[in-house]
Amino acid sequence: MAVRTILKMGDARLLRVAQPVTQFDTAQLHALIQDLEDTMQAADGAGLAAPQIGVDVQVVMFGSGAFNPRYPDAPVVPRTVLINPVLTPLGDALEDGWEGCLSVPGLRGVVPRFQRLRYQGYDPLGQAIDRCVEGFHARVVQHECDHLMGMLYPMRVRDFSRFGFTEVLFPGLDSADD
Ligand code: NI
Description:
By secondary structure, this protein is of the alpha+beta class. The protein has a single domain (12-169), classed as Peptide Deformylase (Alpha-Beta Complex). It is 19% helix and 27% strand. The protein is built from three helices and eight strands. It has a five-stranded antiparallel beta sheet with strand order 1-2-3-6-7, sandwiched between helices. Strands 4-5-8 form a three-stranded antiparallel beta sheet. The chain is globular, with a radius of gyration of 15 Å. The model has no long low-confidence stretch (mean pLDDT 93).
């Protein structure tokens, strides 16, 4: 379909609380998902949320199912479209990890996230998704679902000594597009 413009931090549309999807398996929903897919692929992203392309609905996409040059050390996360998500932390344990965001290009920061998590929601056909995950997979889900609540990862950074430009923090990492 189309590679869409990714909104950047500072755009008020990234601060909205997204609306739930009420109808599944529609042409409109499939077109949105195709646009997310094309846009995420073009940017080598690990995830993308509908609000990042200016669409105010609770749809996120994450995972590559394959090696991602922007996250060379990351474990594989299955490619997932998650709609109307509900996240439930499993335990109180938090884990620090580096994050970037296509809406915050050129920067990375350390963000505490729940280490283990259950997520529930729906796929594009309206079939239930219910998974318990941990580590990087759990981190990606929390990052993407934050976009549906108007939260960008820099809002969760606690230690700004671990926040900065990707090219300085990680010289040599392919960050041309982030
Ligand atoms: Ni993001």
